[in-house]
Design goal:
Order of helices and strands of chain B: HHHHHEEEEEHH
Number of helices of chain B: 7
Helix content of chain B: 55-70%
Largest interface: A-B, 51 and 50 residues
Strand order of the largest sheet of chain A: 1-2
Shape of chain A: globular
Strand content of chain A: under 5%
Number of strands of chain B: 5
Structural class of chain B: alpha+beta
Helix content of chain A: over 70%
Distance between the termini of chain A: 38 Å
Number of helices of chain A: 16
Order of helices and strands of chain A: HHHHHHHHHHHEEHHHHH
Structural class of chain A: mainly alpha
Oligomer: heterodimer
Radius of gyration of chain B: 21 Å
Chain lengths: ~300, ~200
């Protein structure tokens, strides 16, 4: 690079910084204009609603109505029915599209046509949980020290990479698949057959993938919410994904015989339940309707996981 | 000379970013930082469990806009309540949400809070992202806060723990309860949960 080019860049950068500073200043001054800017939640709205949200003309129209409605409060006798209606419309619009209301979409997205059946299987699961799962988890919690539980968890998580890698490849995430294989090998060798999670301490985070996520990656929607006893909350897409992962993809399953696979399933369930004792206890005791609370938690969490890269 | 020029260019390119980072962003981060320090301070002091909970309760009610969250949680049904029911509901809800949240602080094991980033949501609201690092556990817990300034004072409007928004979950739950069982049932249940019945 020549000296003159440096001077040019130098002048340009000063110019840009000054202009940016001006822009920021202007933005701060006209803060009322920002009132209708969408927050990040608008991205959750259906496309049709988003399109409407971005229509500046419509926003301006309603903004004008807003000013009218403020004046109308002073002399309410002069309210014409048309103005009244537009003021109401504005209120409706504001409620519908304001940022927090946009978050309401999370609730609208709850698609639970089989609610009665789901509630029934939730009740069945509750009984099974009380009689078998929770006592078993408590026993497991009591018998094994934290150290032992960590070993079991690490070992099972490391085996889970066998499902993650094929799914990462299916989604074309080759770099992540390479990282996962690296992680698996590090934990297999340095971590003594995956008993110690060395990789996490070496800044190699675990990216979990499953076939439900792969389906979502190619645009398959979640479908109706399902609650299956023992397996827990899910939806049609992710339940299918779970089956495909276990039956078709998992190479570890093919290496083990039937008894070993059952042992692994049992250990996975026990490990998961013992990790969630407090969490599930909180939902059961503290919330008014545990079923709908769990549904909301599952749908919100799953939605973010599916969106993550 | 070239190196100096390079550095100067970098500084001038960075300046707009600094200008954009509004005062509120810093205020929001400081607010959360101070709040987490206060909470950890309470948990670390050697007082009885009951006193700790009492202190946490007052801290929660002071810094979280429980009234607004209560209104949001009930959504369209809030408008149908009469004045007495409204004030009753909001009072009950405030206690309910506080009790629900205080439970999470039962077990304290030398966790510490990292403030990661904060975002300006265009209309003066701040979104502060934090993580709670746990002893002996490499994976942190993600907790984000939505902050809004009311006459200069920051207040929390939403807590997003592990991708789950508190207000959205509450709204979903309450709407389901009210549409299935009615508002009186909800108020009764709230009373029961808070322990006033």
């Amino acid at each position: 690079m020549k000296k003159t080019q440096y001077y040019l860049i130098f002048i340009l950068s000063i110019f840009s910084s000054v202009s940016f500073a001006n822009l920021a200043h202007i933005n701060n001054r006209n803060s009322s204009a920002q009132e209708y800017r969408p927050g990040p939640y608008v991205a959750n709205l259906p496309y049709e609603m988003q399109k409407e949200y971005y229509m500046p003309q419509k926003i301006a129209e309603f903004q004008n109505v807003k000013d009218d409605s403020v004046d109308l409060k002073k002399d309410s006798d002069q309210k014409s029915s048309k103005q009244k209606e537009s003021a109401q419309n504005y209120e409706k619009y504001r409620l519908q599209y304001s940022k927090y209301e946009a978050k309401y979409v999370v609730e609208n997205e709850i698609f639970d046509p089989f609610e009665p059946v789901n509630r029934m299987s939730f009740a069945i699961h509750d009984v099974i949980d009380k009689v078998i799962l929770l006592p078993a988890a408590h026993a497991y919690d009591f018998v094994l020290p934290q150290f032992g539980k960590d070993i079991v968890n690490n070992f099972l998580t490391n085996l889970g990479i066998a499902v993650t890698v094929p799914n990462q490849l299916l989604q074309g995430k080759f770099d992540l698949a390479f990282e996962s294989v690296q992680r698996f090998l590090v934990n297999l060798t340095l971590g003594v057959f995956g008993m110690f999670d060395v990789a996490s301490y070496e800044q190699m985070p675990y990216h979990k993938e499953d076939f439900g996520k792969t389906l979502a990656f190619y645009g398959v929607p979640g479908g109706p919410y399902l609650f299956v006893p023992i397996l827990g909350p899910s939806n049609v897409r992710d339940l299918t994904g779970q089956y495909v992962d276990y039956d078709k993809i998992d190479p570890v399953k093919k290496k083990f015989d039937r008894a070993q696979n059952n042992q692994r399933k049992f250990a996975t369930g026990l490990n998961k339940r013992s990790q969630n004792i407090d969490f599930i206890d909180n939902i059961k005791t503290k919330s008014i309707d545990p079923y709908s609370k769990l549904r909301s938690l599952y749908i919100q969490n799953r939605k973010t996981i599916v969106k993550m890269k | 000379m070239r190196n100096i020029m390079k550095k100067l260019c970098l500084i001038f390119i960075l300046i707009p970013g600094l200008v954009f980072a509004s005062e509120n962003l810093v205020k929001g981060q400081d607010f959360i930082n101070q709040l987490s320090k206060d909470v950890i301070g309470i948990l670390e002091t050697k007082i009885s469990q009951h006193e700790k909970q009492e202190k946490l309760r007052s801290l929660f009610k002071k810094n979280v806009n429980t009234k607004w969250i209560g209104k949001f949680a009930l959504g369209k049904y809030f408008r149908n309540l009469n004045k007495e029911q409204k004030s009753q509901y909001l009072e009950l809800y405030s206690d309910f949400i506080t009790e629900n949240y205080i439970v999470h602080f039962k077990k304290f094991d030398n966790q510490y809070v990292n403030i990661l980033t904060s975002q300006d949501l265009d209309d003066g609201d701040i979104f502060v992202k934090t993580e709670i690092r746990q002893h002996n556990n490499p994976s942190p817990i993600k907790i984000d806060y939505l902050i809004r300034f009311e006459s200069g004072n920051p207040l929390i409007y939403d807590i997003v723990a592990e991708n789950v928004s508190l207000i959205a979950a509450q709204r979903s739950e309450f709407n389901s309860v009210v549409s299935n069982e009615g508002i009186d049932f909800l108020l009764d249940m709230l009373r029961k949960k808070v322990g006033k019945l």
